[in-house]
Amino acid sequence: MTCSPKLGNLISRLDTPEAQRRLRAWMLTTSARPYLGRLCLEKLRNPRHHCSSNQCYSSASGRRTCDWAVLDHPEWWRGPQGEFIVTSHPYNDTNGQLETAHQVELGSLQTLFSCTVTVSTLSWYAPGLTMLVTLRGKENDTE
Asked: Does the pTM of the predicted model rise above 0.90?
């Protein structure tokens, strides 16, 4: 796998070979690439969304990743059809599961932003201590 400079920086921050292996496997499976543009959850529902005011960045909008506890250690990606993808790595509860409050937040995010939500144990951020949460937005239609 050839790394872009942006990807190389992300991979170099991962502190274990297992974390690096998990990230590379996820990227190969999803064909996602890092996204470093403006971060607004509205892009999940509408890939053409452009933040034209500070409304997207107010805490009342719910469009900032930092407004949601389940979106811990978030990363933004673009999928092969132009869709936006957000990955996050919330810490497990004492039973190695996603906390109930985080599950509730994921339901709200799915409803608010019309995205697909998946949860797995294959987090590359502190493997074994965190879960991998993926929010996949709508494909970018070119009409």
From this structure: no
